[in-house]
Amino acid sequence: MNHALSEYVDLLRENGLDPICELSAETLSTEVKNLTFDSREVTPQTLFICKGVNFLPKYAIQALESGAVALIGEKRIEGAEPFILVNNVRHAMVLAAQMFFENAPAELTIAGITGTKGKSTTAHFLNSILNRWMEETSRPESAI
């Protein structure tokens, strides 16, 4: 299910990220059909996240030229509009992903392996055992 950009802005506001944006009603009503922080993956109606130490303004411009509906980031970028300014882009990314993917991680079972030695070997053995069980029960493969 696609969500309107206004729903993302509301979610950011509800979670204390203080979004500052001047978006038209038309832009706010646009459905977000893609979410990414990689300008090479932008398609029309993408919500693009400007994040990372090495983020260059040219990536934001590329995203807009490729059809991004809006950008989210902690610092305004000259010539990059529409822009949603937030106080924590990493938190914004988590919230946006949860909304976009309908909180898919809540449906996952996750196991962790800790210790000093044998983690990789144990993970591969466990993956092999789980995949055999998943195959026998007609389920998709597990992942490492």
Polypeptide structure, described:
Helices cover 37% and strands 14% of the residues. The protein has helices spanning 5-14, 25-28, 57-65, 89-100, 119-136; strands spanning 3-4, 31-32, 34-36, 46-49, 68-73, 83-85. The chain is of the alpha/beta class and 144 residues long. The strands form 2 sheets. It has a 4-stranded parallel β-sheet with strand order 3-4-5-6, sandwiched between helices. It has a two-stranded antiparallel sheet with strand order 1-2. Helix 3 links the parallel strand 4 and strand 5 (68-73). The mean pLDDT is 93. It contains 5 helices and 6 strands, in the order E-H-H-E-E-E-H-E-E-H-H.
Fold topology:
Layout: E1 3-4, H1 5-14, H2 25-28, E2 31-32, E3 34-36, E4 46-49, H3 57-65, E5 68-73, E6 83-85, H4 89-100, H5 119-136
Parallel strand pairs: 3-4, 4-5, 5-6
Antiparallel strand pairs: 1-2
